[in-house]
Amino acid sequence: SDVYKRQIFSQNEVRSIIKKRRNFEYKLRRKQIYKVDYIRYAEYETRLDLLRRKRKTRFGAKKNSISDYSGVKRIHGIYNRALMRYKNDVGMWAQYVMFCKNSGSERLLGRVFASALQHNPLSVELWIDAATVEFELNGNMENARALMQRAIRLNEDSQRLWMEYLRFELLCAAKLRERSNLLGGAAEGDEQSQQQASHKAFVQGAVASVVVDEIFAKFPADFEYILQISAMIRELTGFQELLQSVYDRLHPIAAADAVSQVALLQHLHRDGSEGGNSHYVTSLRAAVEVQSGDARLWAALAEALVASGDVAGMAVAYSEAEEACGSILVSMWLDWADALQRSSQFDQAVSVLKRGVKAHPTSALMAQRFASAIAAMALATGAGFPLQELRSILETSLEACRNNQDKELVCRELLRVLLLGGGSPSEIVGCFEAGLLAVPRASWLKQWFVGWAASCQGYKEVMALMHRVVPTPGSSAELFLECVAYEQHQQTPDPSVIRHFFELAAQAVGDSSAKVWDEYIRFAYASNDLLAVATLQRRASQACEDFAKRGSA
Asked: In terms of pTM, does the model score above 0.90?
């Protein structure tokens, strides 16, 4: 072997390589062949050739031999065999193209792409990659343009393809502009100067302008996509006229929707500079004067004012929005209060949230934030904790809530207020009971209830609560295990009680929680009940798929 004669690999390593290759070849000649076998074979040969090159460099060998070509040739053969079987596998074609680029086999790329596109004409990525190779690697604009145009004929609804074609035409124009600038000193009448004059329209983006017209005709109402197109044009210098024409067409589309209007204004003006932000605010002010009844425009204006540090202007904007719209969005009330709290204006934030709760009485989030703001102001100012006021606010909101998610949010905040504000045990129990009536399947609420009772009530009261609450629907594995742990930590644990909670858990969550079965088996093993251990393992394997998989592994 050449690699052995040149002392790149030892005799044992050569034997190992031969054995590995033999195993791969056997796999590729069996009756049932899998794609992964080809991939692993190619990856192995690629790593092997990389190791050979590193050792050759380390040993200082400069003269090339057969081993310098045979490895790459073998890998090409593996990919060709694989792609004869899996002609429509775009991922494998892409992997082969990447290998050709990395191994210095660029001359083969033309044939590889031709075959790949013949079998996968609807693969946008392959068309783009082929055109990129022609343009960037081979420097052939005409072939690249032909590939892109053929791709669009076959995939005319692909937004990605249209965008890449426009990018290609813009890059071509930019490259010719650079060439024209280099030839700018040539004498008038010179052949290069004549070529520069003849390509003036192309250099200014005439072809790209035609592509933009086609994009607007193909996707006339897709505002987000055309905004991405304008962002791409903006990244390249020298196409201001084309960019302005895109903006002029976007304005009528955005005028019908406030969100689109805000996005366009951000794109036009919000570039991170101080002047850009001020232009953005000015544009938004002009927009709200025209559409003063649209709360989303007011929200964007207030956000821009906060970003620029103008909290006072933000407050004025929200006040004007409330007056103009009659009622502003919940998110606007919350953003208004957040900005005031960040500037340490807690009393004003509370006042804003109070008005927000009045405007949106069914919003659980508004009530929760209102209660949090009152509590934060009390703690910041050192005033007494307004427990009764917060209870009244949250209980009213709980009655007004329409879905379980909002009810859980309010219950959580009400309990937090009672526990933080030193509510009496009867008040806390009443809150838990009201919460369970509102959201009976909330396992976290049951867990809080049991945990709180375990910390401040006697054994009989806690056990009565567990037997009442735990068997109800919606209880989680953690709740059952918490009940088991409570009994196990007693001075004289009752095994029958522990077994009872484990059986409840097995019935409720045994099909989805392997942890419950693990703890149940551990308890039986600690009790020296080996027969029960065997029985539980059989039950767990039948009931819980995760437990069965783990056991078989």
From this structure: no
